[in-house]
From TrEMBL:
SUPFAM superfamilies: S-adenosyl-L-methionine-dependent methyltransferases (SSF53335). GO terms for molecular function: S-adenosylmethionine-dependent methyltransferase activity. This is Methyltransferase type 11. One of its GO terms (biological process) is methylation. It comes from Carbonactinospora thermoautotrophica. CDD domains: AdoMet_MTases (cd02440).
């Protein structure tokens, strides 16, 4: 299988977002389960992850936040309501942007939550035009993550905060588990995957300070098995659409990812001095 390109990432989201929402949730990110979660549903666990990231974003009420890689807007709306801020979301997928704007309108939030088509690698905003930046499970899709981080630092005002959630690689995988990591890169459109230390170094190199990472791999890993279960439960419905071969690859990969500790997940906050 050839390495995915940014165009592949865009096409995948354009084509498959609606299906993914049916299978998983309007939050296009993993869930957070801990010992207190019990039988917590996917919807509750994905909101919990949003809340964990909200707790790491420092922005005063009335502030303006950029959401990089906004999906269909569910995290942005929760963030806007929790912190009483304005949110501008961007996505590389136009259908996502349309759906996100419709959702903000339906929720009565369109006056302070809006979405537009843009590439995180070339943000269409002036320098220092946001009080905070939020990037929830989007930066692993960047072909040149340092460039995206430089863009984020540029549009963030001095003193502003960045909060991000993303996949990381704990250590190089070997043997069969290397094949799983390779399949995750290919099928997941994962163009940037590094250790937490390397991620933090990239943030510091573009000028961020007070970089603080929390490893939530254990709390988010159940998402992989639950993904496999969710796709398997809709196998008959999805087979004509995805094809049985691709569907089985998705199910198998997610089962394997649930047993691959090399892949981790991190919540990071950082400040622009
Ligand atoms: C896993 S989804 C997460 C969506 C959303 N943050 C959420 O948690 O529901 C990744 C998002 O990144 C966006 N994305 C990927 N590459 C991008 C790029 N180069 N510029 C802007 N958005 C991008 C995708 O369109 C998608 O909205």
């Amino acid at each position: 299988m050839a390495a995915p390109t940014p165009d592949d990432v865009q096409e995948t989201y354009d084509e498959f977002t609606d299906m993914y929402v049916q299978v998983w949730d309007e939050n296009l990110h993993v869930g957070y389960w801990d010992e207190s979660s019990g039988e917590t549903s996917v919807a509750e666990a994905t909101e919990r992850l949003t809340d964990e990231l909200i707790a790491r974003l420092h922005c005063a009420p009335g502030g303006r936040v950029l959401d990089v890689g906004c999906g269909i807007g569910k995290p942005a709306m929760r963030l806007a309501q929790a912190l009483q801020v304005e949110v501008v979301g961007i996505s590389i997928s136009r259908p996502q942007v349309d759906r996100a704007n419709a959702a903000a309108y339906a929720a009565g939030l369109a006056d302070r939550v809006s979405f537009q088509h843009a590439d995180a690698m070339a943000l269409p905003f002036p320098d220092a035009s946001f009080d905070a930046v939020w990037a929830m499970e989007s930066l692993h899709h960047m072909p040149d993550r340092p460039r995206a981080l430089r863009e984020i630092a540029r549009v963030l005002r001095p003193g502003g905060c960045l909060a991000l959630a993303d996949f990381v690689l704990h250590r190089p995988a070997r043997g069969g588990r290397k094949a799983v990591v390779d399949a995750f890169r290919e099928m997941g459109g994962v163009l940037s995957l590094t250790t937490i230390d390397e991620y933090e170094a990239e943030l510091r190199q573009v000028g961020f300070e007070a970089v603080a990472a929390t490893d939530v791999s254990e709390q988010t890993r159940p998402s992989m098995t639950k993904h496999a279960e969710a796709f398997r439960a809709r196998r008959e419905e999805l087979a004509p659409y995805l094809g049985t071969e691709v569907l089985d690859q998705i199910i198998t990969l997610n089962e394997q990812l649930g047993m691959t500790p090399e892949i981790g997940y991190v919540l990071v906050s950082a400040h622009r001095p």
